[in-house]
Each structure stands twice: as C-alpha cells, then as structure tokens.
Structure prediction request, 620 residues.
Amino acid sequence: MNSSALVERILEGSPRAVGRAISLVESGAAEGVDLLKKLYPHGGRARVVGFTGPPGAGKSTLIEAVALNLLNDGSGVGIVAVDPTSPFSGGALLGDRIRMQALYLHPKAFIRSMATRGAMGGLSAVTLDAVDVLDAAGFDWILVETIGVGQDEVDVAACVQVVALVLVPGLGDDIQALKAGVMEIADLFVVNKADREGAEKTSAELEALSRINPATGNPPPILRTSALARQGIPELVEGLRQVHARLSVPERARQKGLQQAQARLSRLVGDRFAEHVRSSPLWVEGLDAIAGRRRDPYSVCESILKEVLC
Amino acid sequence: MNSSALVERILEGSPRAVGRAISLVESGAAEGVDLLKKLYPHGGRARVVGFTGPPGAGKSTLIEAVALNLLNDGSGVGIVAVDPTSPFSGGALLGDRIRMQALYLHPKAFIRSMATRGAMGGLSAVTLDAVDVLDAAGFDWILVETIGVGQDEVDVAACVQVVALVLVPGLGDDIQALKAGVMEIADLFVVNKADREGAEKTSAELEALSRINPATGNPPPILRTSALARQGIPELVEGLRQVHARLSVPERARQKGLQQAQARLSRLVGDRFAEHVRSSPLWVEGLDAIAGRRRDPYSVCESILKEVLC
Prediction:
C-alpha cells in the first residue's frame, strides 16, 4: 500500500491501517514521518486522557472499564499503553487478557502498547505519534497509560488534555511523597480499589493536599472506583467529561495547545539535532576525550554547537 | 567565594563546598557549568552504583544500610536520590529521617536529593552533574537512587557503573512484566524485605528469568536482604564490589565509558540546541502553526534545522 492509500485508510478509521501506521512510526522509517506529516492536520478532535500512577494501582483495569463504558455509549476508543508493567504491554497475565476480551474484540476499540523506545527520540515521541495516528483515525477518546515518573512521562502528560492520577488506598505516606512528583500535573484523582480499607483516608488526604496546593482554579475532583468490580466507572467517565469541558474553554485550550507544541517540538528538535551531529568528526573525538577525562561534556558540547550552527 | 576557590574546596572534599556546587548546578547558573568543566577532569575514581526499583521496594533503607557498611569500612559515601518518593527527597517521614540520623550525621557521608528537574536538561542531566561533583570531591562510592522507569532513568542507568535492581517478594507477575523494562540493565538483583513471605519464590523467578535472558557473560547475582533488619548487607556490599571489579576490566570499562559519554553528550547537545533555537522567530511561528494544526511538528522541526545548521 502506498502512503496516500494508507493515509486514506487511516482517515476512514481502518484498524489494520492504524496498526500498520503505528508500526511504521515505531520502526523509525522515513515513511513513518511522512505519514505523520500527512495525518497531523486531520487530528485535534479526540479527547486525550492520560492515566498515570504507580504500578499496581490498577490503571489498566481502570482503563478497560472506562473504555467499555465509552464504547457502550457509541464512542470509538483508542488505548495507548506506555507502562511496561501493563497488561496491555504484553507483560500481561493470560488471565488479564482473557478478562479483557470484550475490549480486545470490540470493533470500535483499538489497543496498542509502546514497548520499544522507538528508533529516534524516546518513548514519549513514539507515544505521541501513536496518539496522532489514532486522533486522525477519528477515535473520540484516546486513553494513554503511563507510570507517571521520569522525563518521558512528564512529556506525555504535557501532551494529553486531561491527566488522571490513579492511586490506591494504603499508599500511606507515599501520597505525601507524590507531592514532589506528578501531583501537580493531575487534573483529576482516582482512588481505585476503593473497596479496600483506607479508601476514605486516602481520599481525605488527597483532598487536604489539593487544598494546600496553590493550583489555579478548581481543585481536581477526587473519585473513588473499584475497576475490577466495575464500581464508580460512570461517575469517573462523567468526571473526565466535565474536566475536559472545563479545560477546553478557548483561552485555556489555546494556552495548552502552545505548551504541548513547545514540549513536543523541543524534544523533537533536540533529538534530531543530536542525531545530526553524531556523524560529525568532532563527535567521535569528543566521546573519546570525555571517556578519558581529557575533556568535559560541556566543553565538547559547546565546540560541537559552535561548529555546526550558522 | 570565587570559582577557583570553590573548586579547590571541593577537591579537598568540603561538604559545604559540594553542597554549594550542586545547588549552583541545579540553578542552571553559568557558574555551575564553569565549575563542572573544572571538576570533570578530577573525576572518574568513584564507584558509582545505581539502585533502581519500584516505589516501596525499600531502596532508601537499603542505601542507608549499604552506606553505613561502607562508611564503617572507612570509605566516603555520596548519595544522590532521584526518586521523588524517597525519604532522601524530603517526601520523607520524620521517622525515617530520625532513623537515618547516623547516616546524616556521619562526617564522610553526603546526601543530596535532586528534587527539581534542573534549569536545563532533564533530571538526568543534573543528577549526573551531581555525581560528577561528588566524584571530584573524592567520595569512594556514590549511590544513586532512582525509580527505574522512563527515559531519565535509562539515561542515569547508562551513566552509573553498576545497576542494582531492588525488588520485594510478592510482586508476583510484576517480575514477568519487568522483563520489558529495566530487567536488562541490571547488573545485580536485590530481593529486599526478604523476611517476607515469598522471598524464595521471587529469587527463583529472577534466577529463571536471568537464565532466559540472552545476557553476555555471567548472569547477574541475586542477593537477599532485609535492609530494615540490617540482614544481608555485608553480602550485598561484597556483591557490589565483585560486580564492579568484573565490569572494570580495561576493555569493558573503555566500552562502558564511551557508551556513557555518548548517552550524556546526546542529551546535552540536544537540550542545548533546543534552547538555542527557542529564540528563533521560526520557533514561535512554528509553535502557533502546530497548535493550530496548520503545520505538523516534523515539518516545523525540519524547517528549523535547515535554517540554523551550516
């Protein structure tokens, strides 16, 4: 299939074409970039929600439940998993996969895990590319699962419209600790496994914390779910809709769009440039000198920039 | 204090000077870079060990125990925590801090947590800078605590000499899942909280996994500890020494040194370049066009590179 035909099939929403496109993008082939250029103008319509939180918080089960709820309402749902410990990422239990059959077999669902870091750029780059493909393919909702730690995660969070932070009761003082991390990027909190002891305490702590937080505007809503028991899911979906609507008022959306573009372009430009200079003789010499402690990375970096910039 | 005086104090191992230097580096001030250039040639002597693993695995308690063991042997120990949920990172329980008094008060110990992402580059950049400062200051061992997920973590792992992956019993199928992630960068496995049920099973699973893994050379040793009860710590320290010695044979060390230089220089060059082009008019126009879906990030990136490269 040539590139234009593939683009057409994607815009029609063909799951096979979508899968193929994401594989192309992951492989780092030039056709992948070509494709992304053609698809990008068609995107911007999907509601993109990031689910972030520690391993074991039940993010995948929660995403499964949310996705089924949305699918039942007639929406198309794309899922991108970045968490290597996610059932979506093939590190899965067979049991999980069997349970998730309804989701895997649904004609309006598409599930993809980003296992590799991609040929160029980090995991964040290919993840955002996958979101672009799904967006162009007309999925109404795109749910992104990430662990929520590290630069990649922050980059992904910067590029979704709503960030849901998923926690479980009994994290105890970890909640305090989270303050330093992803806490401030959360638009909505989910206390999952809320049938466990301590759910109330966890919610109360979150509430206290988000009141201390000098967030502008409304504090993030706190919702309790039990994804496995399918409890609290309609309320969560409604919460996501509301937060999305609140964050989509024109001025705010414009701001967010620019931030997203900035985060994305910074990483892209940086990665491409690093790739470019790796063929320079200064690069090879520099590596050797750094490894031998004859030169420091900062001086080598400066020499390289001086050499290649106009 | 001027820059040369500060360098001198750092080379003498003054904790205050080291602290000051890391703060300078974190602030992104030009003096920080200046300092790093002067310090870098003096480094390369420390044994740098990364402790990575999920939140709750007890990494900080383990590092505390390992550090005390090394200090008792007369070594100087620097600790850098990148994990935002670490007690070292101020997300700490007061109780943890009190327990860790012996470590905090030890004259040959230096503890620093990298809470911020640093002014330029990501968390990984400032972390590695902090390691350089400690290295130049003559610390014999530098222990780096990270969560082990995401690009930053991979970058940090690429720049330490030994990676210890810390797990706990009862992770169950998470171990399988870990395969996809940090598993292959581990030089040594620690099953911490080994007094808990399932420690044997976890060790056995790790062993099975590392046998499947097509690793070159020896499979990573698997050690059981109970950091809080101070069990298995001398054995772990001995294990770290052995792995370090094994990885330090000249050819291997040279290879690793080049890899580290490459990982570090790539990120540095990329970040600096992105910073550079942010002042270009193409950048501002580009962001607006991307946000409005009039242009795609890839085309904008190409235009920018074309403009600024010779």
In short: The longest strand of chain A covers residues 47-52.
